[in-house]
């Protein structure tokens, strides 16, 4: 069994005007698909067991498994895992509530402080990568990772660890068509399309 592109539960234009249709379409059909194709290709030369693993299990074990092309898997299996999560945490018009809201207020002082911290780390992240809200030792922290690294890969590989509640893709392919060099405008627009219901669900299950 090889990995396949998960269908979106919404149309490419449903996050307009914050995430434009053209970007969403290319991002899903071309970029995400490429990470999947590359992962499948790499795994043809590895132990068959890895191809049947849920993608999050694969990336969680990356630092300890014996594979020939670890960097290739880090980049591409990471790319698949990150985008698979990303699509599910996007939705227009949800409201932050429940235990996640309380936990964010407790950890950051206020929701405004949390957003400011998330934006600060996003803008200061150099080059391609992801910005994450992570649950770690019952606390919430904001971290960034380079390239397609994911906190599930652990400290040794990603420089961080913990359970990602949600992540924001800050590769230029995620925003350049609409926002060009204005990464901050893209990041601020993210607050309009984050699926807080899904985020709260992920927070509560971990
Ligand atoms: Mn991307």
Considering the chains and any ligands shown, give keywords for the structure.
11% strand, three-stranded antiparallel β-sheet, 3 strands, mainly alpha
What this model shows, in words?
It is built from 9 helices and 3 strands. The protein is mainly alpha-helical and 206 residues long. It has a 3-stranded antiparallel β-sheet. A hairpin with a 2-residue loop joins strand 1 (129-136) and strand 2 (139-146). Helix 1 (21-43) runs antiparallel to helix 3 (70-88). The radius of gyration is 17 Å and the shape is globular. It binds manganese (III) ion. The site of manganese (III) ion has 7 residues, from helix 1.
Number of strands: 3
Strand order of the largest sheet: 2-1-3
Low-confidence stretches: none
Q: Ligands bound here? A: manganese (III) ion
Q: If you compute it from the alpha carbons, what radius of gyration comes out, rounded to the nearest whole angstrom?
A: 17 Å
Largest sheet: 3 strands, antiparallel
The proportion of residues forming helix, as a percent range, comes to 40-55%
Distance between the amino and carboxyl termini: 28 Å
Strand content: 5-15%
Give the structural class: mainly alpha
Mean pLDDT, as a whole number? 97
Secondary-structure element pattern, one letter each: HHHHHEEHEHHH
Shape: globular
- The number of helical segments is 9
């Amino acid at each position: 069994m090889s990995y396949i592109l998960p269908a979106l539960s919404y149309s490419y234009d449903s996050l307009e005007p914050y995430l434009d249709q053209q970007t969403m379409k290319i991002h899903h059909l071309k970029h995400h698909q490429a990470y999947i194709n590359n992962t499948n290709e790499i795994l043809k030369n590895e132990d068959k067991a890895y191809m049947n693993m849920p993608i999050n299990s694969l990336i969680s074990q990356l630092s300890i498994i014996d594979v020939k092309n670890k960097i290739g898997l880090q980049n591409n299996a990471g790319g698949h895992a990150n985008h698979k999560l990303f699509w599910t945490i996007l939705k227009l018009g949800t409201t932050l509530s429940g235990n996640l809201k309380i936990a964010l207020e407790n950890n950051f002082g206020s929701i405004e402080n949390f957003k400011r911290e998330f934006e600060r780390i996003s803008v200061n992240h150099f080059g391609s990568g992801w910005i994450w809200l992570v649950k770690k030792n019952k606390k919430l922290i904001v971290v960034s990772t380079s390239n397609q690294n994911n906190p599930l890969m652990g400290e040794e590989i990603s420089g961080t660890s913990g359970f990602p509640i949600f992540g924001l893709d800050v590769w230029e392919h995620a925003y350049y068509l609409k926002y060009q060099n204005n990464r901050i405008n893209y990041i601020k627009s993210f607050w309009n399309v984050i699926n807080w219901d899904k985020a709260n669900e992920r927070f509560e299950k971990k």
